[in-house]
Design brief:
- The complex is a heterodimer of chains A (244) and B (948).
- Chain A is α/β, with parallel strands linked by helices.
- Chain A has one domain: 3-Layer(aba) Sandwich (Rossmann fold).
- Helices cover 33% and strands 29% of the residues of chain A.
- Chain A is globular, with a radius of gyration of 18 Å.
- The termini of chain A are close together.
- Chain B has 33 helices and 19 strands.
- Chain B is elongated and about 100 Å long.
- In chain B, the strands form two sheets. In chain B, strands 2-3-7-4-6-5 form a six-stranded mixed barrel. In chain B, strands 11-12-17-14-16-15 form a six-stranded mixed beta barrel.
- The longest helix of chain B is centred in the first third of the chain and has 45 residues, at 279-323.
- In chain B, strand 2 (104-120) and strand 3 form a beta hairpin.
- Helix content of chain B is 59%, strand content 14%.
- Chain B starts with a helix and ends with a helix.
- The chains are: A alpha/beta (244), B alpha+beta (948).
- The A-B interface holds A 64, 68-69, 71, 73-75, 93-94, 97-98, 100-102, 104, 106, 108-110, 112-117, 121, 125-126, 128-130, 133-134, 137, 159-160, 173, 185 and B 430-431, 554-556, 558, 561-562, 565-566, 568-570, 850-851, 853-863, 939-942, 944-945, 947-948.
């Protein structure tokens, strides 16, 4: 079954599970000198806990901006975003950062690992930030990496790993702190088909384990693996399809 | 400048003929103007320091040369005779030569004597007085025609008549007198009242003086006045100096260039003329030597800062290359040859080098001016030297060329190195593969070891300091590539570094003969070896250091993890900053510790210098303080009579030449009460035996370890007991062979050659008078108070009484001021280091924007980002400061242990060191504050968007 809602619809029907994310009237405008571009135009969106949402759309449609604004990485000009009960844009930068550390994980297209840290050090970063003891953080990071098949690459630094390995380290880092929600921005964009399929299978497996996953992609095949797909065009959500 | 132009040609060709490379180079400069400005700033300090060193030398040179105008004018040679009759006869013979010779254009007899001159008050007491003025008698009309140009003689009007005087402007200023004022002249136990007729400028004959310093305290009296005073006075005093001045053809400077020809002609016509001194030539040569010495001193000190600037430049260029790595890879991929990459970088560097050299030359002039200003205070003692700020265009050109060459060479070599990129690795921003020893490095290692061994083999037996110091270090360094296939490289570098460090510290004590009398550059080489070894050692073992710090930080501090991770990962960059800091801090701390070693030991120095005496009373040789009268003065326990006389010495180290110094006649009281300490007793069991031997044997002499040593630095102790030397009276030319009995401690003001006073009479005749008295005070008498009393009582004798403590304190104060000046100069290097750290951190922030964005997305808050950057610079700065401080303290301790500067007790100026270390550390943190703040403000989404 699929449904579509107008972008300016005042109410969005609640999903079957309680919403972990509720966005209302989110607007974002980029200003460069005299020019301004409306990247997001009054977006309303609910994401249920445990949902796998794919944000799709052509290049420049506002997908990544939406992810950044919903996750609190970027500021918004209007509206509100409530994640796990907190209106994140009403929080101070420090509290928003703490909130992010406690409840979110990120996977980026360019991996974005810290090059001077080894794989295990990269993975234990969010754990340490969340206040886990150094010993326990190291143990859990090792476990995560071993689970993802990187037990033999613990001490290697990112430049010494292949693209697929780096992205698996990124996934391990994203889930190490057991976040409520993981944001993935084109996670397979820099990978070959085979490695991309491996990473997607990994993400699906994590989702099956109950993780809420918001994934930005322009690839219809990858989007098809999500339980719900929204399409963004010109800063608006133009379709919202759910798969039962 | 021709060299600069030639060196610039290839760069200009690239700029004009290769539009792509020109565009690449110039756009890189203008793209980030603030950073380009920082690069220029970092590089210009090197040029400024070099130019500044030359300007300081110019200033000293010009100031001393100015004496040729103010104190000699047309006088090129001066012949001192032993009597008025001899003076008259010599003047007549020289005048005859003058008429025949095209080389000589003036002969003038003049008579001088030292006298006290006072301004009498209404009650007859002196209102103001100058104890050591020079009374001059000469024929004014003859003086005006002396030489070719009357304007440079400074002489005006007629010869003063009886009861009248013409006063030189320095003495007039000292006594605050104007024409019409009354003066009282005291000499030979008599006095004469005179009226001031006029004030003469300090120029030429009007300023004629052989005393040290820039002042000429001259009082011109009617000819015959000195003899009248002498006839009236009953005292035993040095007769007046009867001289004949000779002027060579040509102006002030040109005349001096004919001195050698003129003296040869005089010798040919008159035979050997004892007492003839080429005064102007000596003065100009001395000016040049002093100027060069100061240029070398400040240049050597500044060399560390110049080196820090070079390291900064290398670091910046390597960072630039890293930042542009993928860009460089793309350029190579689309067809740009490696030489093109080198060209683009090198042209960019050439632009920086030109701008930095130009700005640095100007800054160097300013720097020289500041140093000259500070030095004016240092040179403002009793024998003040008036510093005239001077800049020689050649100095600025040399500074520009040297700074330019250093910058250009640095950027050219660095460009060639960084342009060796692998296209694929560069495009994909992949790390360079790990270093593997190659055959070439084995060859280089073997060559370095061979070079080191050759230096040891030739240098050690010949006591050559550079080869002795550098040889073992080269062997250690060469063994690293040679053995790195078989042994762990970290272990090898660590062992080689430790070996080099230890060698550089102990070499001076282990082989003292090789380093005896070593010049300043050897200490520069030692400093470079020490810091390079220490930096290599620390760089190789950073992981272990960081592990300790992490453990201390509890392991969970994210800021500490990140702050340590980058310096450890970027070893080259960290090593460069460490080297900059270590070099500069090493020299600064070393100078601070050294300065303190001297200044803190005023009491022990005073005890050494004073022996059994408390104060010293110098007086005019023409009217000395009567020793017997002084002995009966209240508060005086004992008085030793010393006779200081100008002398010339020829020793085994002077290559048969006679060098000017002075000789001191001593008496029994001097030995009885406790003379200056000895540091080499020779064949004598104790100091008293050595001094008694000198008193009883006219062929024995005790010399100081500073004997015949010009300039500063540690005592060279050129002579050893048992060596022979020849003493010559410069006036009569009479000589005596002497044997060194023992070596005395240096005594600041009077590093004399001690002989018995009675033995001097044969050589010097009636000129031997007790013009320096050493006084032992009675119990409870304050030496400083007694000195004031004696100054007042013996004003007419030109008494200058000073406690030994005051003499030592005054000398130490000048020394300390000089050390301060050097510290200020060295602090410029610190500016380079701190600016370098700031530049590196600014670039680090730009380089890591994406990583900061990731960290922020992971929950790293802004304050933690700021802290991480601050910790990073704090870590590097702290390591550099620790290395520099540690090395400096160890080196200073070693110097004390080896008695390089005599018998000093080691002590650290904790307060000064704390200020220095904390200020350096604080400034480093401040330099990082802005980039760290900038990093903390990076918005995660923006950083990630830019990156992706």
């Amino acid at each position: 079954m699929s449904s579509s809602a107008p972008a300016d619809a005042p109410d969005i029907s609640p999903g079957p599970a309680p919403s972990i994310l509720v966005a209302r009237g989110v607007r974002k405008t980029y200003r460069t000198g005299a020019e301004s571009v409306d990247a997001l135009r009054s977006i309303d969106l609910d994401v249920a806990a445990g949902e796998f949402l794919a944000v799709m759309g052509p290049s420049g449609s506002g997908k990544t901006t939406l992810l950044n604004c919903l996750s609190g990485l970027d500021d918004i000009d209007e509206g509100s975003v409530v994640v796990d009960g907190d209106d994140i844009h009403a929080l101070s930068d420090a509290r928003r950062t703490r909130h992010r550390a406690a409840s979110m994980g990120f996977i980026f297209q360019a991996f974005n690992l810290i090059p001077v840290f080894s794989a295990v050090e990269n993975v234990e970063l969010p754990l340490l930030l969340a206040g886990v003891s150094a010993k326990r953080a190291r143990h859990r990071a090792q476990e995560s990496l071993e689970r993802l098949g990187l037990g033999h690459r613990l001490r290697h630094r990112p430049p010494e790993l292949s693209g697929g390995e780096q992205q698996r380290v990124t996934v391990a880092r994203a889930i190490a702190g057991e976040p409520q929600i993981v944001w993935a921005d084109e996670p397979t964009g820099n990978l070959d088909t085979e490695t991309a399929a491996t990473v997607m299978e990994l993400l699906r497996e994590l989702h099956r384990g109950g993780l809420t996953l918001v994934l930005v992609t322009h690839d219809a095949a990858i989007g098809a693996s999500a339980g719900r797909r929204i399409e963004v065009r010109d800063g608006r959500v133009v379709s919202d399809d759910r798969q039962d | 400048m021709v060299v600069v132009a030639v060196a610039s040609l290839p760069f200009l060709v690239v700029l004009l003929r290769r539009p792509v490379l020109r565009r690449l180079a110039l756009r890189s400069i203008v793209r980030r103007p603030r950073e380009s400005a920082l690069v220029v700033l970092g590089s210009l300090l090197g040029t400024a320091i070099i130019t500044g060193s030359f300007v300081v030398g110019d200033t000293l040179d010009a100031s001393l040369r100015q004496d040729a105008v103010t104190k000699l004018g047309p006088v090129d040679e001066l012949v001192r005779t032993s009597s008025a009759q001899e003076q008259e006869a010599l003047a007549a013979r020289l005048a005859d030569l003058d008429r025949r010779s095209p080389l000589i254009d003036g002969v003038l007899p003049l008579t001088t004597a030292t006298a006290a001159v006072a301004v009498p008050g209404p009650d007859g007491r002196a209102l103001r007085a100058e104890p050591a003025a020079t009374v001059v008698e000469l024929d004014f009309p003859a003086a005006r025609t002396f030489g070719a140009d009357s304007s440079i003689t400074g002489i005006d009007g007629d010869t003063p008549g009886p009861g009248h005087a013409a006063v030189g402007e320095d003495l007039a200023a000292e006594l605050a007198v104007v024409p019409g004022d009354l003066l009282t002249v005291y000499a030979y136990g008599a006095r004469r009242a005179v009226v001031v007729d006029r004030i003469l400028p300090q120029r030429g004959l009007a300023g004629v003086s052989e005393r040290s310093g820039s002042d000429s305290l001259n009082l011109f009296l009617a000819p015959g006045t000195i003899e009248e005073l002498r006839a009236e006075g009953p005292v035993d005093a040095t007769p007046p100096t009867a001289s004949v001045a000779i002027s060579n053809q040509g102006g002030i400077v040109e005349g001096a260039t004919r001195t050698d020809e003129a003296t040869e002609e005089i010798a040919a016509a008159l035979g050997e003329v004892p007492g003839l001194k080429p005064v102007k030539q000596d003065l100009l040569e001395s000016a040049e030597a002093v100027g060069a010495e100061f240029t070398e001193l400040f240049g050597s000190i500044g060399f560390f800062s110049v080196l820090a600037g070079v390291l900064l430049l290398v670091n910046i260029f390597v960072m630039l290359a890293q930042e542009r790595k993928s860009e460089m890879g793309m350029l190579r991929a689309v067809g740009l040859r490696r030489s093109g990459l080198v060209g683009s970088f090198a042209v960019e560097g050439w632009c920086y080098a030109v701008a930095a050299a130009a700005a640095g030359s100007l800054a160097g002039i300013g720097l020289g001016r500041v140093v000259a200003g500070v030095a004016t205070d240092i040179f403002s003692g009793d024998e003040a030297l008036d510093l005239t700020f001077a800049v020689d265009a050649a100095s600025v050109e040399t500074g520009f060329a040297a700074g330019f060459a250093i910058s250009l060479l640095t950027v050219a070599l660095t460009s060639a190195w960084i342009a060796r990129v692998n296209v694929i690795r560069a495009i994909r921003d992949l790390p360079e593969p790990p270093h593997r020893p190659r055959a070439r490095s084995l060859v280089v290692g073997a060559l370095v070891v061979a070079a080191g061994a050759a230096l040891i083999a030739t240098g050690v037996p010949a006591d050559e300091p550079y080869a002795t110091l550098v040889g073992p270090v080269l062997v250690a360094a060469g063994l690293v590539p040679l053995l790195s296939r078989a042994l762990n490289r970290r272990l090898l570098v660590s062992v080689a570094s430790i070996a080099s460090l230890v060698w550089a510290v102990i070499a001076f004590g282990l082989l003292p003969a090789a380093f005896e009398g070593a010049e300043i550059p050897i200490f520069v080489v030692q400093g470079i070896i020490l810091t390079a070894s220490a930096v290599a050692l620390v760089s190789q073992n950073q992981e272990a250091i960081a592990a300790v710090l992490r453990r201390l930080g509890g392991g969970r501090s994210m800021a500490m993890r990140l702050g340590l991770a980058y310096p450890l990962a970027r070893r080259f960059r960290t090593g460069m900053i460490l080297a900059m800091y270590s070099l500069v801090v090493f020299t600064l701390v070393f100078i601070t510790v050294l300065s303190n070693l001297f200044s803190s030991q005023i009491e022990s120095f005073t005890a050494d210098v004073a022996g059994g005496f408390d104060l010293q009373v110098s007086s005019n040789s023409a009217n000395p303080v009567p020793a017997e009268e002084l002995r009966s003065t209240d508060g005086v326990a004992a008085v030793a009579t010393l006779a200081d006389l100008d002398a010339e010495f020829s020793t085994p180290t002077t290559n048969g030449e006679f060098e000017s110094w002075f000789v001191t006649g001593i008496d029994e009281v001097f030995v009885d009460e406790g003379p200056t300490g000895l540091n080499d007793l020779g064949r004598f069991p104790d100091a008293d035996s050595a001094y008694w031997a000198v008193l009883s044997d006219p062929s024995m002499v005790i010399v100081s370890d500073f004997f015949l040593q010009g300039g500063g630095g540690p005592p060279e102790a050129a002579l050893v007991p048992g060596q022979k030397l020849t003493l010559r009276d410069p006036l009569s030319g009479r000589v005596r062979e002497l044997t060194v009995a023992a070596i005395a401690d240096s005594s600041f003001a009077n590093d004399a050659a001690y002989v018995s006073t009675t033995s001097l009479h044969d050589l010097y005749g009636p000129r031997v008078v007790a013009n320096r008295l050493l006084v032992a005070t009675a119990p409870g008498v304050e030496p400083a108070a007694l000195a004031d009393r004696l100054d007042a009582t013996y004003l007419a004798n030109g008494a200058d009484a000073e406690s030994f403590r005051a003499i030592v304190a005054s000398n130490l104060s000048s020394q300390t001021q000089f050390f301060r000046l050097m510290q200020g100069y060295l602090a410029l290097g610190l500016v380079v280091g701190i600016a370098g750290l700031g530049v590196v951190m600014v670039r680090a922030v730009r380089e890591r924007r994406r990583q900061v964005g990731v960290l922020r997305s992971l929950g790293y808050d802004a304050a933690a980002v700021r802290r991480a950057f601050m910790l990073e610079s704090a870590f590097v700065a702290a390591e550099g400061i620790a290395i520099g401080t540690g090395l400096a303290v160890v080196t200073a301790f070693q110097i004390v242990a080896n008695d390089t500067f005599g018998d000093l007790a080691f002590a650290l100026p904790w307060g000064q060191l704390a200020v220095l270390v904390l200020a350096t550390f604080g400034a480093s943190i401040l330099a990082t504050a802005a980039p760290a703040q900038q990093a903390s403000r990076i918005r995660p989404a923006v950083a990630l968007r830019l990156a992706d």
